[in-house]
């Protein structure tokens, strides 16, 4: 069995000038592999996974360390591994004038991750959109919330 | 590998589903795999579960810490897990070679989930005596946990539950994420749970 590459620290961002130069060089004479993580799994610090080239990795980061898109996880002469976060999808909800409080209460009660944008409540979709829409049926039928997109 | 503290695994589930019984069975199963471990229990206003575990003599008493949630059990594993994080940090300090800390939540309902700030992986324990409709109710604990454990499978015939459809519905609700069955009283299914935990958060060959 292959031994997984152990990742115990983040070396920096792929946009750091020094690292960017190293990655550029490796991409010419070696391979830059990508480890994908879903947005909902970004807080994790200890897990097994495989890169897009099938390299086994064991991520074991200190608790104060936070993964991020573009994090450089591994560097050697002819191989690098960078982290890529999957696309975060959002559900855009527009409350009516008398629906905002109820929508805010619902989102909080369900522990949805949200942000605000131009009068809309943006809900991060960590699970299938149908699960979120099912919780909105009553507010929608009462005309208190509309799903913009 | 550098030692950066033990991996942390959450164990949640409704009152009476068998969380403490599972911990009691997991301790020897993990010891058998060479895992150095400790346990944190959460109770409302007592140390009941910690004292129960200490009476088993499965672990040295100082490796079992109790957290009193005081109120809603899910609060101390999700919204503000500070008490549990501090307890885990203290175990890391006292036992630098620890591999794993099991954090057993206080009994709650189907909505409890663990913060990934607190744990690296979490499982949710339900039992057949609670009703075969639990997976269909799609509680966040059932849906979002890394591993769903259906306990007390030996009771199925006595409570009118047919196990196979319950497992199928649980797998469907979880979109194929793992579901394991246990009978903690008879020590059945425990090895599979222990293997799953080790494979998820401990270093081992791929």
UniProtKB/TrEMBL annotation, chain A:
InterPro entries cross-referenced by the UniProt entry: UreE_N, UreE_N_sf
SUPFAM superfamilies with a match to the protein in the record: Urease metallochaperone UreE, N-terminal domain
A Pfam family this chain is assigned to: UreE_N
SMART domains per the UniProt record, alphabetical: UreE_N
Residue ranges annotated for the UreE urease accessory N-terminal domain, each copy included: 19-81
Annotated protein name in UniProt: Urease accessory protein UreE
Native species: Acidisoma cellulosilyticum
From TrEMBL, chain B:
Organism of provenance: Acidisoma cellulosilyticum
Residue span(s) of domain CobW/HypB/UreG nucleotide-binding: 9-179
Record-listed GTP binding positions: 13-20
GO BP term (any one): urea catabolic process
Alphabetized UniProt keyword annotations: Chaperone, Cytoplasm, GTP-binding, Nickel insertion, Nucleotide-binding
A Gene Ontology molecular function term of the record: nickel cation binding
Subunit organization: Homodimer. UreD, UreF and UreG form a complex that acts as a GTP-hydrolysis-dependent molecular chaperone, activating the urease apoprotein by helping to assemble the nickel containing metallocenter of UreC. The UreE protein probably delivers the nickel.
Gene: ureG
Function, as annotated: Facilitates the functional incorporation of the urease nickel metallocenter. This process requires GTP hydrolysis, probably effectuated by UreG.
UniProt name for this protein: Urease accessory protein UreG
HAMAP family, alphabetized: UreG (MF_01389)
The UniProt record lists the keyword GTP-binding: yes
Compartments, record wording: Cytoplasm
Family label: Belongs to the SIMIBI class G3E GTPase family. UreG subfamily.
The keyword Chaperone belongs to this UniProt entry's keyword annotation: yes
Domain of life where this protein originates: Bacteria
Pfam families for the chain: cobW
